[in-house]
Amino acid sequence: MEYQPKVGVVSEAGEDRVRGRLLEDVVRRLRVGHYSLRTERAYLGWIRRFILANGKRHPRELGATHVEAFLTGLAVEGHVAASTQNQALSAILFLYRDVLGMKLAWMDDVVRAKRPRRVPTVLSQTEVRTLLANMEGRMAVLARLLYGTGMRLMEGVRLRVKDVDFARNEITVREGKGGRDRRTVLPASLVPTLQAEVERVRVLHQCDLGRGAGEVWLPHALSRKYPKAARELGWQYVFPARNLSLDPHDGRWRRHHLDEAMLSRALKRAQLAAGINKPVTAHTLRHSFATHLIEAGYDIRTVQELLGHKDVATTQIYTHVLNRGAGAVLSPLDR
């Protein structure tokens, strides 16, 4: 005899439908808030894991003890980093506050994991030159750009043609961390190479337009305000992807920027070829940019503005390295 659920009890299929509608609401609220696609995927993943960890119960039925147990399990059993644990907490709080509209007393009492203060990995100028010498093609250009400007990885791959000012040797970084715009220096030695990249983009864009494509993603509602902007050269990415791709937001075919993982792999290969024993990532180039500027005598406020730090205390971590030992202390062994 086929099982029939009791009156008032939601069947498993019904639970799946409820959970599906809930996740659709999460996506809707994230897109209304202009969260990035990466954040959207991360939050959806954590919310799914939270629901599954609690027997597929609706989050309205759960409380502080369930959230704390979930986060504790991540730390104790999953051995995740503090930043990962905090991201999971942010996703759960977003679910309750922004999607379910629940403001519960326990939300203010949830303690975030304390992130350990790490000393950044910094390459010497010689190491940077050796690293870059072992790179080629667009990955070499992008790596030089990140080191020469202090831009973050995603700021580099999302750079638009219109935001490169060759006349002023200046780059405008749009919607950096915290949604803030800023300006940073364009290295004079990189100008000819970057001009060649822009010319490459122009030719590629003309080819795309010729076959009925040529559209790029625009932030917020600009596509409605300026219907033709998505096909203009100025809005194209300086580092475009090789192929067109389907935008998961609206299902339209566009040319996105290149996959940031390509640079990570290229840096790893260059690190091994250069014989550098330090771990090297795109952010290592940013750390090196800041440290080398301070070594050259630039004041901390200037470096803060170029990096886009909200608080100068964040920038001050780079004063730890001035080629004179920790804290500029002379070891008694050298006296």
From TrEMBL:
Matching SUPFAM superfamilies: DNA breaking-rejoining enzymes (SSF56349)
Tyr recombinase domain segment(s): 118-331
Domain Core-binding (CB): 17-100
One Pfam family of this chain: Phage_int_SAM_4
The entry's keywords: DNA integration, DNA recombination, DNA-binding
Family (UniProt): Belongs to the 'phage' integrase family.
Name under which the protein is recorded: Integron integrase
Naturally occurring in which organism (per UniProt): Pseudoxanthomonas mexicana
